[in-house]
Amino acid sequence: MERRSFLKTAGLAAGAVWTFPASFHAAPAQKPNIIIIMSDDMGFSDIGCYGSEIQTPALDSLAANGVRFTQFYNTARCCPTRASLLTGLYPHQAAVGHMMEDRNLDGYQGDLSRNAVTIAEVLKSAGYGTYAVGKWHVTRFAGPEGPKHNWPLQRGFDRYYGTITGAGSFYDPGTLTRDNTMISPFADPEYKPKVFYYTDAISDHAVRLIQEHRERTPDKPFFMYVSYTTAHWPMHALEEDIAKYKGKYDGGYEPIRRARFERLKQMGLIDPKWELSPQAGNWDEVLNKPWEARCMEVYAAMIDRMDQGIGRIVAELKRLNQLDNTLILFLEDNGGCAENTGRNGNMTRPAQPTLPPIPLDAIRLEVIPKQTREGFPIIQGQGVMPGPPDTYIAYGQGWANVSNTPFREYKHFVHEGGIATPLIAHWPAGIRRKGELEHQPSHVIDLMATCVDVAGAKYPAEFAGNKITPLEGRSLLPAFHGKPVEREAIFWEHEGNRAIRMGRWKLVAKNPGGPWELYDVENDRTEMHDLAAKEPERLKAMVAQWEAYARRTKALPWPWKPEYGQPAGTAAGEKKAGKKAAGKKKTTK
Ligand SMILES: [Ca+2]
User: Fold this and answer.
1) Centroid of ligand 1 to alpha carbon of 231 (angstroms)
2) What residues make up the domain containing 456?
3) Where are the beta strands (DSSP E) in 266-419?
4) Domain count along the chain
5) What is the pLDDT of residue 30?
6) CATH number for the domain that contains residue 360
7) Which of 173, 162, 164 minimizes the C-alpha distance to 145?
8) CA 462 – ligand 1 centroid, Å
């Protein structure tokens, strides 16, 4: 275990540049394959090799034979993270500063910018086969007829199987698409599982596309983007997986959170001097404990199933003798989600279908469906045990707080709980470190630069007649080997939540009108001791830096109003924002 001082490399002297020597590792005979695997709405401590009790042997094995980053960051939300990952830019530069709506501002168009290129577009021109599987969610045009200018095949991918929108049933997901055609999972001659479960469909298609690539173009390397919707609401999982976790969460939030906190410290992933952030939710006051515990059992089962699929992908690479020369990266798109979807009300399941059935070949588009194909209504609330296809329920704030152990806040927010994610890098032929930790702060914007570097590709100044915004991220190749990556600062803006990280210092604010807080992250990464009042000069300088970033990257001007208090996108914020926006011009479609 590595006990190197945290953040030591973060405060590099200005101008210190480290260049990666070409001879550092023997150049593989063939360019490496690259697979980026991303999960959805999971917290920092939700996988085994980051302190979780949830069983993730496949990811743990990648970690044991690769490098784990302790300070890797996403953007706090699904679409902006996906836009950043694909383009190497901050989300607003890719025109996806928020969700999939056009707010008539450059940074907030809800449709991937043509002044950005995707990793697939860049690697394709470097001779790679390119594949995307799973959630897309970077275009507001998600109807079966498109327009499809920002669907995967029009953004550099050779093949695609997945969902164009952001969330949906795991048993019957809306906007399911193969290549350029929307399909029904129950009328798909190419894929006929006994039970359709989206996580398995993603894993199976990843395996199949790797096989087909090797059969058809054995001399070409490939890039694959595997984007699971695990463990975004609804809590949908197969009973055989839920059974593994039966009773595991009956003791409530605190024992699980404490155990994760201790394991994180033992593993060296967090500094023992950091305090555990406050507990959200009091188990003693939970009225329906079996229901609340079941929510987490299902959540754990969803992650378990994803890990089984990752295991199958790894096994296939091994079978094809490609594992050594494949860079596999695993990350999460945002922190655990405290949203309340489906947790209110008290619906019951009727004995018989009450609605007209939907034909098996019908294309469905819903994020939150009203019924199953058979005609059973979708049921929600505390009378409904989550898991089966006719339920649609989120796991709620108490468990999200557990997911984000030891940090504060959730998805949406840019305190550490919203933006801290594991990053596992596994590449036997290219990374010598085994089971080690890398403490340098880095960000999802870095994955494009890393892919360009690893693939020996060139990031273009112009693509398809459009000027391309210069790359924001830095290659993590040096960091894979424990060498410093030069970087002045990392920035965030989401729904008026703001942050900047410079070395050991983090400036952060919640909500458009919220005051700035300042933390010494080296001593206090759980953001418990606000130093804003003690460090007015530092605060002022960092605020100026953040504002310059926000204007440069088009995070400003804002669609958010400081007086909203709560950001749009949260339940409270949407209500408030909706009321205010109603009297003004309509900015969403
Ligand atoms: Ca997400």
Assistant:
1) 9
2) 33-487
3) 326-332
4) 2
5) 86
6) 3.40.720.10
7) 164
8) 30
Mapped onto helix, strand or coil, the DSSP state of residue 360 is coil
Query: Is 11 inside a domain boundary?
Result: no
Q: Answer with the one of 472, 487, 502 that is the final residue of a domain.
A: 487
Residue 359 lies in a domain: yes
Do residues 270 and 389 share a domain? yes
pLDDT number for residue 562: 66
Prediction pTM value: 0.92
The verdict on 303 and 372 lying in the same domain is yes
What's at 529, amino acid-wise? H
The 10s digit of each residue's pLDDT in 548-572 is 999 999 999 999 876 655 444 444 4
Domain end call among 487, 522, 547? 487
Q: Is 137 a catalytic residue?
A: yes
Same domain, 105 and 129: yes
User: Alpha-carbon distance 156 to 446, whole Å?
Assistant: 19
What percent of the chain stands above pLDDT 70?
90
* Res 383: pLDDT: 87
In this structure, are 433 and 573 located in the same domain? no
In a domain, 17, yes or no: no
Q: What are 408-439's pLDDT values in tens digits?
A: 999 999 999 999 999 999 999 999 999 999 99
Which H/E stretch holds residue 60?
helix 57-64
- Structural contact between residues 97 and 108, judged by C-beta atoms closer than 8 angstroms: yes
Q: Which of 78, 295, 337, 451 is catalytic?
A: 78
Q: Does one domain contain both 533 and 453?
A: no
Question: Tens digit of pLDDT for each residue in 279-337?
Answer: 999 999 999 999 999 999 999 999 999 999 999 999 999 999 999 999 999 999 999 99
How far apart CA 251 and CA 293 sit, in angstroms, is 8
Residue tagged active-site, from 137, 236, 426, 443 = 137
Ligand 1 centroid from CA 336, angstroms: 8
Whether residue 3 lies inside any domain: the answer is no
* Catalytic annotation present for 451: no
CA distance 367 to 247: 30
Instruction: Tell me the average confidence (pLDDT) per consecutive run of 10 residues in the chain, 589 residues long.
Output: 38 35 48 98 98 98 98 98 98 96 95 98 97 98 97 98 97 98 98 98 98 97 98 98 98 98 98 97 97 98 99 98 98 98 94 98 97 98 96 98 98 98 98 97 98 98 98 98 96 97 97 95 98 97 97 94 52 40 32
Q: Are residues 483 and 497 in the same domain?
A: no
Domain co-membership, 498 together with 478: no
**Cα dihedral: 414, 73, 242, 364 (round 10):** 80
pLDDT tens sequence across 35-81 = 999 999 999 999 999 999 999 999 999 999 999 999 999 999 999 99
CA of 77 to the centre of ligand 1 (A): 5
- Identify the residue whose tokens are 């699929």: 309
Whether 221 and 205 map to the same domain: the answer is: yes
How far is residue 167's CA from residue 159's CA, in Å, rounded to a whole number?
A: 21
